[in-house]
From TrEMBL:
The keyword Nuclease does not apply. The lineage of its organism: Bacteria, Thermotogati, Deinococcota, Deinococci, Deinococcales. One of its GO terms (molecular function) is oxidoreductase activity, acting on the aldehyde or oxo group of donors, NAD or NADP as acceptor. This is Bifunctional aldehyde dehydrogenase/enoyl-CoA hydratase. The keyword Oxidoreductase applies.
Amino acid sequence: MDAVYGRPVAVISSEGVDFGGALAYGRRAGGALRRMTFHERARALKALGAFLMERKEAYYALSALTGATRRDSWVDIEGGIGTLFSYASAARRELPDERFWPDGRLERLGREGTFVGRHLLVPREGVAVQINAFNFPVWGMLEKFAPAFIGGMPSLVKPAPQTAYLTERVVRDIVASGLIPEGTLQLVTGEPGSLLDHVEEQDVVAFTGSAATAAKLRVHPAIVGRSVPFNAEADSLNASVLGLSVKPEDPEFALFVREVAREMTGKAGQKCTAIRRAMVPTSLVEAVTEGLRRELAKVTLGDPARDDVRMGALVSVEQRERVRETLEKLQQEARVVISGEATLLGGDREKGAFLDPTVLLCETPLTARGPHELEAFGPVATLLPYDSLEDAIHLTKLGRGSLAGSIVSRDRAEATELVLGMASSHGRLLVLNRDNAKENTGHGSPLPQLNHGGPGRAGGGSELGGLSAVRHHMNRVAVQADPTTLTAITREFVPGADVQEDVVHPFRKSFDEIQVGDSLLTHRRTVTEADIVNFAGLTGDHFYAHVDEIGAREGIFGKRVAHGYFLISAAAGQFVSPAPGPVLANYGLENLRFIEPVGIGDTIRTRLTCKRKIRKDLRPGETRPTGVVEWRSEITNQDGVLVATYDILTLVERARDGFDPPAGESGVQA
């Protein structure tokens, strides 16, 4: 039924579904996804995001039936699609154009350097089973699907029945797009039946929903018996703390009141990150109550399809009754201070799932249990007075683990004490004040770049958090080998591996011609006193270790030494090919280490070796295809001792390929 008028919208069922067959099909179909590189998956994800964005209005129309306003739906629909873009961008920016992900640093396992080790991340060869909640039928699916897709795992999505019709519409469009391999995404609506009975060792299960259901699924015999990774993101009694330092006339006071009201009414309070408990200094309880009363009086209730409505309905009449039951239990230890029945602007009070915002006050928060244990998953919040920061921290912890918490204060010492005190029991903390008020995304808004999850009651899991969510869908394996073999496996140069020296200078080769392991050993150069003096005069760096004979003898080197940056500059003079060619620019320098000093009369030499290659997509307006080549640079002295090492990134011209738009054009490429 729709949440506004109680009219039938869809019929859903999982009757007759072969759950074991669906999972088996996903595992087989996943081979095509695993054969794609990270960058190929990222391009497909970006193209899919653009495809869905063009069809968003159809999703908005259905979303209104779930009780969500246009603003609420924006978070769900465009926020969900935005997650696809975010993961596509992160994968192209941070991951190699390979089917595997070298993880961490190289480990030298033998004294002579002939035995080394490296961790690799490879896709699990199973299906990511994703069980989602009713409140975000689009975002809830896409925020799980995106990292699984980048990680090379197909998804089987099981949405909550109340809003499954919106999820189904988006999935139908994804399948019709043809932008992802067949079998990459499957959808099951209705009851999950025996689905989890068929999960196997290579599968993963991700759940979003109530803490009670998460506890049951976590101990499912198949999950436990087959050691299937299980990630839970559950409801939690999130708190916002108004700092003791805040006065009623401060901007932070108004920010706190608006944030509590916004979190109560956004999605009609049906967010797992919403503020359920508002910790307020005892002296400000009355002022905060009046502020909330004024703010909530501005909230218009009714049909979310109308422009003049700020809060729609709960997702179903059944959900509204559950909230009412919890509200009655909360009133055993708290009293209602703000309530009422607003005039509906459209919708049906009897058949629709409307509930007016309600604020309670618990005057004994340190001894009460209900406000810290019972969650009314709707437009309900409880004010909890406190007298010290220690008490405020303790109150937040009584919720036994939360997804999100916020601190409203401009006092940095106060904010620091609260953050460090609350950190162990929260997955994310927002410090809100006048300095970030314009840009902050709000207490209840998870971001693709940051962790979404929390300890204890919040499920103990973690989603999003940038590429850490991709790791959840991959297996980490330690590979031990000699440097040359490990270079061949990882296609990333390992120090000590065989190199290829060519009569053609590596800077005379295009991106396509350069191979990992291509190397150049330069001519020698003896460092003179004139070099050091001239470099000091050119840069203004007259540090005593370089120019003061007496001071240098008394320093840690016992003699005057060359500037470290002179060594880098001199090395560039050794390996650069000066004539115009395929190398277009210096793109950066990373991992610089100065290891041994170089004094007057020492002789240096540089070895430049191609470490890895990164293809760059054409940006809008660009017509010249390029790639980034990462070079390992090693400067040694006359005794063959390493004195400095660093990685140089160069922008190199490459040939146009099938992922590039025609010359002079730009666009999303699948």
